[in-house]
Amino acid sequence: MTRNGPLALAYHTVFIAFILAPILIVCWVAFTPLGYLSIPIDAFSLRWFRAIADYPEFITAFWSSIALAALSSTVAIALSVPAALAVARHRFPGREAITALFLSPLMIPPVVLGVALLRFFTQVGLGGTFAGLVLGHIVIVFPFALRLVLAAAAGMDRSIEHAAISLGASDAAVFRRVTLPLILPGVASGWLLAFITSFDEVTMTVFVATPATMTLPVRMFLYIQDNIDPLVTSVSAVVIVLTAILMLLIEWLYGLERLLVGRHAETT
Amino acid sequence: MSFLSISGLRKSFGQHVAVAGLDLTVARGEFMALLGPSGCGKTTTLQMIAGFVPPDRGTITLEGEDLVRVKPNRRGLGLVFQSYALFPHMTAAGNVAFGLEMQRLPRAECDKRVADMLALVGLATFAERFPRQLSGGQQQRVALARALAIRPRVLLLDEPLSNLDAKLREEMQIELRQILRSLGATTILVTHDQAEAMALSDRIAVMNAGRIEQVGTPTQVYERPATPFVAGFLGKTNVLAVEVRAEAGGTAAVIGDTRWPLPARIVPGRASASIRPEKISFVLDGAGAGLAGTVRTRVFQGVHWLYQIDTPAGALIVIKQNVGDMMPGEGAPVRLTWRAEDMTLGPAK
Amino acid sequence: MTPRVLPYLLSAPALLLFVGVVLIPIAMTVVLSFNDWSMTRGIIPEFTLKNWQEVFGDAYFYGIFFRTLRLALIVTLITAVFGAPEAYVLNRMRRPWKGLFLLIVLAPLLISVVARTLGWALLFGGQTGLINKSLLALGVIATPIPFMFTETGVIIALSHVLIPFMVLAVWTALQQLDPQVENAARSLGAAPALALYRVVLPQVMPGLLSGAIIVFALAASAFATPAIIGGRRLKVASTLAYDEFLNTLNWPLGGTVATLLLIALVAIIVGANRLIERRYAQVFQ
User: Fold this and answer.
1) Contact assignment for B102 to A157 by CB distance below 8 Å
2) Which residues, numbered 38 to 97 in chain B, qualify as contacts with chain A under a Cβ-Cβ cut-off of 8 Å?
3) Fewest 10 Å CB contacts: which of A128, C9, C82, C150?
4) CATH class of A53-261
5) DSSP per-residue codes, B134-167
6) pTM of the full predicted structure?
7) pLDDT of amino acid C96
């Protein structure tokens, strides 16, 4: 395969710079020693990181987001494992429609979902509750979880299960001893992707969240609408670093490329 | 009563009839091969015996018990798959032990049997390896050990050697036969490889389009093929157009001016005849009898000569042992003959 | 348990969730779009077409929709023009650079969109934005370029947010390609650029178009980035719905905007997918 010439590499460098610029500048500005936003910064200070402690609403929102993400991912995975097995293994009437329905949140603009849930929750008395927020997040992250579990279930050699059956295993034993261990990488990465998606979700959440059930992205978003000061950059920097750590974890456990590309991509 | 008995087995998938009324009996300790091209229904038959595909009609009886009623995990059959289907997350020993764990065998006895089985297939020192650390041949042996560990009543092999390269396949065939003979295991092998079927089995059931065309020992199906399909599937054969004529005292197959007397029950008319290349001889005396032809090509292959001969009835392949005699050269006119009982007749093409 | 019933039982819990949390709420929103509203009485549960008439009749509304579609189209073009070559360049790299840079390009997808957009706000800001400061200091420009609260700014920021999707789509398509095909074209005398255009591009096209559909849909329904960069005055469909729902509190009108956005996007996505599948059927075998 021909290698890249200098022109191609120059383009690539500019591209990478473009991709990283906004992220790097946020992290950089977060270290400003001044009391207001000014670029460039000439000294490094942790004052705005320490200042986060003075804003308990950010810390509460952070833990809310964590709890919300953990809860909705877990429920989404618990529901998507049987659903994936049903869709991957059986041909039944309505299979295509059901799969389309499960993947529909990818096609539905989050705004529409936010609006719809706001209306729905108000009518059924779930308005402004954490439970309602969880339900909305479960639905939004479900397609991400399902796709990864589905890939694992569909990619599994069925004859391995047949072998287990022929050796005397009941359906429950087959699932416990053979199927589940083999789709576990898909399940784990599905959970992680769902977690990250829920944690970052802002568009739908901004409609359904209330001051009592505020999540971190929404808190940051509302703050930015009023003013942009170094505080929100230090919060963003923390989020970026935490995400980076999580990504390294995924890369080590599963392979980030496999997670995002959806299947085993060989790099040569 | 025979050990395993299949009667009237039928299975269709939508419009496609995979198995169209199959009858077969297998004796205890017998090695039976289901031989046929892809799509002939042999794998479907095996899957029905194993219980993964429910038959539309028919019975499968094992030791007098109706197997169709029994769930697949209770049939006590051992399966070896084409893809080996080893549990990738368990070691070789773990794989072999699995069936014993399902039977709730006590730990000590389980460990002993696993060790015995792995020793039987020559993998005693590989017990703690994972499948990905084993070669294809080694994986195949683990799969065999795993299936044999549960002391199955019948062992079902689904093209187990087709993923191995030729040399390894031959070695495994010999080993397989030795192991199964020593255990006296009743075995059903599904394969499309006629050499494999002939090498391993006590009897072969040749299948085509969902039906069994012939059941017999390897010698029987090779030397006395019942239909042109069987003749063509096992070994090489020539197919000629002949005319069957009624004569005084019986019927005869006729090509040109050469005739072969046949048993009287053949219906007169046009037909096809299969004759194996090694059964055709050159007529050496100048009596003028035999089918006339001209040698098109002649190839020396060490053990034998391979001839292609053009005749009015078509091109024939003839194989002649190299016994040092003078052989006709290319372009030479020859006359061919064979025994009537070496011909297999079938419908005209 | 018969195999017939099993798949339904397995999908039932998720199905129930989706019917309850997706289908019913959306149906309610569609119904809501036909409801009346007044500042004093709130939502009036009577059937009326006035919301729909307003959205289609008032220039303010369909102006916003056209802007949304226009922006989405431009963003799609930009991501395609700049993202596809990057995918190609990545594909030709050696290990470990190939995997590393792919990760760098795709990783931003996992980072909060608010954090990313904040970065653009810092780069864009009038006098204080880094871009303007640098260009002023270098003497390239005399007055700061307005980025914040302009369509240009929104387009640039949205392109940044969505270009990883395009790179991913084209990269995936490139993985299916036999690299020898391009070499074969070269050996037959084609110049590198021509080989690219005549041989590689046509094969990658279905992947590129799939990526384009994804980018278009996400750009048309984008919320956070246009809200932060575009501000209150530069509205797109999503921020319009937000406005009606949470500021004006005219829920029926907001519901109309949402329903229209949903229908338009679903129609475009499904239609475009069908077109691609038909045109490139042989590639999908």
Assistant:
1) no
2) 50, 52, 72-79, 81, 83, 85-89
3) C9
4) mainly alpha
5) S-HHHHHHHHHHHHHHT--SEEEEESTTTTS-HH
6) 0.81
7) 83
